[in-house]
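We emphasize that the prediction below concerns an isolated chain of 152 residues; any contacts that depend on oligomerization or on bound cofactors are therefore not represented. The input was used exactly as deposited, without trimming of termini.
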Amino acid sequence: MKHTLPIYAGRAERFFAYLIDALILLVPGTLVVALLDSADVAVVGVFLVSLSYYTYFTASRWQATPGKRMLSIYVARVDHQPLTPRDALERFLAFILPSLPIYSSIMPQQQAAMVVFWLTVTWFAPILFTPERIGLHDRMCRTRVLVGKVGA
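Result of the prediction step, given as a token string:
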């Protein structure tokens, strides 16, 4: 049996897949904000929509969000197995980890934004430089983003 090495998704594919997903999420996110009176409740609502979207699609038979699917890339564990719903949830939570200080009341908003910026750079810069193109969220969750489509 011939074993082929995985082809890791490129930087541009990962970035554009993220942008496509962000555009898709604008619709339900805007609806949540419009329907909820409180800004605090709306933030939680938008978070839950994003959590559901990324968890559902990444654990689906596609192993990819619609943005990743459009660009023919998918997420798998390092053992090449599909992500379980728990794996997908953990990956989403690890993905958003650098943004959490923006929601903090411990520091001034401008300072929190600067912290988020530097955490995000640190978190995702390895995608630019590692051969497997993995961010810290992929390293933590033992996942990789690969080229191809699964689960037609």
